[in-house]
Each structure stands twice: as C-alpha cells, then as structure tokens.
Specification:
With about 725 residues, the chain is of the alpha/beta class. The chain has four domains: about 1-155, Response regulator (Rossmann fold, 3-Layer(aba) Sandwich), CATH 3.40.50.2300; about 180-300, PAS domain (Beta-Lactamase, 2-Layer Sandwich), CATH 3.30.450; about 310-470, Reverse transcriptase/Diguanylate cyclase domain (Alpha-Beta Plaits), CATH 3.30.70; about 490-735, EAL domain (TIM Barrel, Alpha-Beta Barrel), CATH 3.20.20.450. The protein is about 45% helix and about 25% strand. The protein contains 30 helices and 26 strands. The chain is flat and about 130 Å long. It starts with a helix and ends with a helix.
Amino acid sequence: MVFNKTWQATGYDLPKKQKSQGSTKDNSKSKTKLLVVDDEPRLCHSLKELLELQGYQCEAAIGGAEAIQALQHATYDIILLDLKMPEVDGHEVMRFIKQHGLQSDVIIVSGETNFEEATWALQQGAHDFLRKPYAHGELLHSVESALQKRQLKAENSRMQKWLTDSERRYRFLVNNSPDIIYMLDEKGHFSFINNRISCLLGYSDDDLLGKHYSEVVHTHDLGRAHLTFNEYRAEPHTTSNVEFRMMKKGANALPDMLIESQLITVELNAMGIYEESEDNKNKQFIGTYGVIHDISERKKAEAIINHQLYHDVLTSLPNRILFHDRLDIAISHAKRNSKMLAVMCLDLDGFKIINDSLGHMTGDELLQAVAQRLHINLREGDTLARVGGDEFNLLLPEISRREDAAIIARKIINNLKQSFEIDGNEIFIGLSIGIALYPEDGEQMDVLVKNADMAMYHIKGRGKNGYEFFSNNMLGRISRHNSLERGLHKALEEDQFVLMFQPQQAIDTGKIVGVESLIRWQHPEEGLISPIDFISLAEETGQITDIGEWVLRTACAEYRRWHSQGISGIKIAVNLSAAQLYRTDFVETVLDILEENQMPGEMLELEITENSLVQDIEHVVEKLRQLAEHGIQVAVDDFGTGYSSLCYLQTLPLNTLKMDRSFINTIQSTEDQHSIISAIVTMAKDMELSVIAEGVETETQLEYLRSIGCPQAQGYLLSYPLSADSTLELLSEMH
C-alpha cells in the first residue's frame, strides 16, 4: 500500500493497532486540536495522518511562516514543532507563542541534537523535545503526556476558581447580608461583626470589636438581650425571634426624649458556641454567634398591607370597607350630637368610552387625576372613597344645612369641567352626584348609601353632569329604571325598536332636503318610549353600539325602499354614539351597510356630538376622513353646547353644523339681536359649511333664521317625527 510505503520510506513505524482496526477516538482526544509544523510537506502530512488515526483533530503548517499565520487565526492545544526550518524557523515560532501569551503546549520534533538547542526550547516553555527519527510510541506518549498535563492544569484551574468563587460568595453573602451577622466571646464582647452594622446603626467594625453588646442595646431590653446573647446551657441551643431595640451610634448621648427616634427594633437569633473539654465529657461555653434581623421593613410592610386592606390601591383613597367604618362612626356621632351629615355617590360620565378607546392605563391615570382634583374642595374631616371602577363615595360629617352639601357638589362639578392632560390627550369628563342626608333620608348606613346611589342614577337619567338630592318619589323611577334595563336586553332580539324620521327643510324654498332618523322603543308594556329614557341606559350597559348599528342599517334599508319608489335626492341623517366611533370595525361596518343597500355615500349624513370628539379626536378624524372619501357627509349635532373648538372644525371633514335648540328657543322676536346664532351662521358660510337649526317651533323663529341666511331647519313647526310609512307617503307627494 502507498500509505505503508510512505511511512517506511521516512523511517517511522506504522502503529500496529491501526493496521487492522479503524481509529478509536475517546472524548478528550476528539476535542484536542493539534498543529503539526515542519518544512517537509510529506513528513508533515504523514504525521498529521498518524495523529488523526489516534482520534485527534489535527492541522498541518508547512514552515514557520504558515504556522504563525495559523496561530493568528485559530487556537491549538498542542503544537508539534520542528526547529530547523528555512526563513522562519521554530525558534521564531516559539518566540511568537511566548510574546502573544498563547496557551498551547509545544513538543519540539527536530533533527537538532544540540544540547543547547534542547535546553533553550525547554526554557521557552516547550513540554518535550523529541529527536528525529523517533518511534511512534514515543511521539504518541509525549502527546498524551502533554494532553494529561493540560487536563490536570485545567482541572486545577477549575478547582482554584471554584475555591476562589466560593470564598468570594461567602464573603459577599456575609458582608452584603441584609442582616447583622455577629460573634461574641464568652464575656459578651463582639469578636466579629459584618458590614451591615454600619448601614443599620452607623457603627464601624472598630467601634464595636472588643466592646460589650450592652453598649448597643436599649437599657429597658438588656434583660432579654442577656438571656439571648449568653447561652449558658448544658447543650447547644438556638434562641429564635427575640425582639428588642438597638440604639444607633451616638443615641446614648441624646436626651431621653430624643433616643426613641434613634432606636431600631430588631429580631435576633442566637446559638451558643461550645468547645469539647479535654476529657470529652463536658462542653465549655466560649461564646455566641447568630443573626440580628432588622424588622423595621417588615413592620412597614405590615403597615402597607393594613393600608391596602382599607384603601384603594390605584388612588390610595379609602375603600368601601373604610368608608363604611367611618360612616358608621359619623352616624353615631351625629346621633349623639343631633347633627346632620351627607353621603354622596359620585359617578364619572363617559368613563367607559374613554377607558375603551384610550386604554386601561390612560383610564387608570385619569382616575388618579380625578381623585386628586376631588380632594381640592373637601374639609379635613371629610372622607372620599373609591368604591368601584369609576364610582366614588363622599362623606360630609357635621353639616349644618342642606345647602352645605349642594355647595360642595357644585364646586366638585365645576372643578371637573376643566380638561385633564393624560399622555398627550386632552380629556373632558363629567360627573353625576347623588346626595342623601342624615337623618331625613335614612338613619342607617346602608339606607343612606343606597338612597345616594339612587339619586345619582336619577341625575344620570336626566342628562348627567349634575347633582340631585334623594327624594321618595325616586323609588318609583328607580324601579322603572331597573325594569327598563332588564327589558333593554330583549328589545333588539324581539325587534321592539322602531325608526321614525323628522324632515329637514330648505328655509328659502320649503323643500324637504333630508330627514333625521330617530329611534323609539315600542315597549310591550309601556308603549312608545322616547330615546331620552333609554339611550343613557344603553350606554351604561354597553348595548349602545348594537343599537346604533341597528339604526344605521334600518335607515339605509329605508332609503333603498324609497329609491325603489322613485324617490331620490333625500339625504338621511343618522346619529352616532361615541362608542360606535371608537369601534375598530366602524368604517368597514358603515361601508358594508351602504353596499348592501346600494346607497350612494352622498345620501348618508352621520351626526356626531362635540363631546364625542374631544376624547380621541385624532382617531375620529382618521375614520371620518376614510368615510368622506366615499362621499359620506358629516354633521356636528347640538353645536355650541359642548366643548366647541375652531381647531376641530378645521380638522374634521365636516359638511354641516346643527345649531342646538337651546339657541333657537331664545328667539322671541325678529327684531331682537341674537349674536351667537348670527355668528354660527356667518362662520359656517365662511367655512363653506351648511347649517341646520334644530327645534324650530314658531313662525317667528323661522322668519328670523330666514333673515340671517340660515339655509335649513327642522322642528315641530315644520313636521313632527313620522313613521317610515308616513315619511314615504310625504316624500311621494312632494315628488
């Protein structure tokens, strides 16, 4: 075989094991990386093959220059190096290894027989020196020896590192322990103490080493400390969880009245240290060691837990439990002293929409800001509590008259009218307040809270953002409220809603140009119910989005019916709730409904209120612009009564302003000046917007609107809301 002839020609013996078997690689050999360096290529590669047959990873470098290049790019465990090489010899390679601090073991494999050369190589750190030619067993033994040396060195390094790390960890744990670790001698003097004593009490090691423990223990606790620190018992025994007070550095020089502030309550564990006697029969007490734990944080934690038990975590206000406790005490005090007190239930208006549209984190920050602002007008003895998501209770003890509670309620509502700035959003929030008085509205805690809650729901049903005192006639209204809430869940399922339409006329021609869709609830027991009685309820229960979609879908279906009867050019206006606007699928829903009914976008006008815009105007603008691209019209309903801003008028893709009926009601004569109405009409013309005057009920009002150039009107003077069939009949007559 060529392989055998190669080895025979070079004067080396082929390993006998390898003649009949494949290589056997153990784990350590397979991970060992060798570099063979020789200027004779055949010899170099032959040696490489020999080592690979033994299971080593091996690379070859022809000459010293190639070896240095290899060492610059890779790491080798063992290097087999020839000294005598042209240009860059082995000496230069050895110097490179030493200069660069390479951790390779070098075995010199050279024809040099010079003793000085061998001595020099070993002084330079070579592991072994083999003279050519050599027996393969000698070479492999030298390689294995170098490998074992490396393994022993690595193991030793690991052990040394483990010991060093262990000592470091021990030292770290002792010196950085949150507890004081100490040792006392048999007389009670400190023989060791860790660094924690400095942080906790202000002492250094030198201050206490050799000093008696009594110098840091409060005088009144020395008896307990003596029993703990001195373990004079027959057998080792551990004392645990002994509490006493320790004094900070310098506290013993202070007057008695000031020492208390320089004391820290600690919890101590101690164990006696004993030494066997010479006869091994008795044990001699030689001191105490243990741990002193600062329990001030635990005491603080207990205080926090106790606080959380009686306080709301988000706002830090008293919770329902603490409120009831204080109310119970206040009632007892009021009864003894014949005093009045007031209980208020406060509920934020529109909080659910803000929470859903801007996210719960913004909602939480808003609640915190509201809680802070509510405190502004309260007296020291008043109790404001958070008892639900956006619901608060307020206790006003010792008031003199009914008007005192009303004054506080008005101040609170006025304070909340100013916007809140939360994460770059300008947020407006309203407040509904119900008030119950002791003793006229109840003498029991539960009755007062229930009646205040009832009054709060009553004001919500009457338009929100106000306050109202409890009265007995509310009982029937609340009962009806609960009945309507139960019935509302069935109304959509059982098709109890009906849609009516109120015509909108062009003032100059009297022509009907559009209709507003108005929902009614055909209740099976109560008959036709106005939206004013159930829309706010639908908002509270979250059903407003489903109801709003029903209105939109029904109105567009009605347009399709009119169109099939040859009626065209009549725009349908549909009111939108804020909750609908903030739905992620709102735009898609509107466009799908238009497509289903083959209704041009120009024939649909969406009416939104100013208050629904201010919560998240950027998202609203984007959605309305998407709809405007399909020709859909946008109107601002009840214009002038909300948080009006020219900014949003310029930002939104608006088409129409609907002037609120409260302005129209002020028109009593065509001779009077109504600057707000005139300003709205003029501004709308300048901005190329249409104006619809709502609530027109008299000829005088209509005539005045005509005189100032108001283009459109709707109201009872022109037409009451009509059923779908009646609307179709009216439109057919006009066409």
